[in-house]
What does this fold into?
Amino acid sequence: MGFPQVRLRRLRRTETLRQMVRETRLEIANLIYPLFVTHGKEVRQAIEAMPGIFRFSVDKLPEEVEEVASLGIPAVLLFGLPEAKDEVGSGAYEPKGIVQQAVRAIKEARPELVVIVDVCLCEYTSHGHCGVVIDGEVDNDKTVELLAITALSLAEAGADIAAPSAMMDGMVAAIRAKLDENGYERIPIMSYAAKYASSFYGPFREAVECAPQFGDRRSYQMDPANVREALSEVEQDIQQGADIIMVKPALAYLDVISRVRDAFNHPLAAYNVSGEYSMVKAAAQNGWIEEKGVVLEILTAIKRAGADMIITYHAKEVARWLTLL
It folds into this structure.
C-alpha cells in the first residue's frame, strides 16, 4: 500500500506528534563538558579561538563546576596547562600537577560530578608531542610506561575515569594493569580508541599550547581516510580492557561512529572537537546560521550515528536549551 493511503506527513503535522515518533533523543545525561585548568590564582582567561570557553585556575574551578552540575551535566573532562614543560612531560604525573590539583578541588566542591581525566603527555612536553621523543620519533613503549604512571597519579588524586588519548599501541593494557595492581580496579578506562590526525584540532592546540614543535602526529594518530583500521583499533582496546571507547572527531566521522556502533556493544563516546565548535561559533557570530538549531542538529546527528555520550564544548548552552524544550 502506498500513496494516497499512506501519507508520511501525518505524523509530522504538530510538534507533539513529531516528539511522539522521534527516533533519536538528545538528553543532558549524554553530555560531557571539557574544562581547561591552568596555573595561577583568580584566572578565568578567554580562549580567543573558542568563544565562550575559558582557562581556569584551580581556585576558580568550584564556581564553574557548580554551574555545570546545576545544569544536570553529569561529567567533565579535564585538560591541564602546567607552569613548566619538559622533554618527558613530567607535569602529567607529578603528584601535585595541575590536573591532580583540579581533580581534588572538583571532587571537594561537587563529589557527585564524574571527573574524567585526559591521559596524555602533549600538554606537558616541551616539544608538543604525545610521548617521549627519541631520535626524532615518539617511542611507543617508553611513552606507554609514562601514560600508566600518569593514570595512576590521577586516580590517586580522585579521578573517576581515565581517558588515554595518546594513540600508543598497548596503552590501555598498561594502564589497566597499573591501576589494578595498585588497588584501582574500580576505575574505568575511556579510550580514545579511534583518534584521527585531524585538522579540526587547531583551536584546542591554542587552548593548551600543545602544537608540535616539529613534524606532526600522523605516525600515531589515524589517517582520516581509514575506517577499517578504526575497527581494529577499537577491537584492540576492548581486548585490553577499555570500558568505554571513543571516536574523535565526531562530525566528519559520523560513518566511523556508525560502523563502530554496529560492530561493538561497548559504551561509545564521540568527541565534538574544538574546530567543529569554533566553526559554528564563527558562523553564528557573523549571522550566517541560527546557532541553537545548528548545534542541536549536529549533536542529534552524532547521537543518531550511535554515540551514547558526547564530549562537547556546547554542553552548558545545550543543557539550558534542552531544559526549556
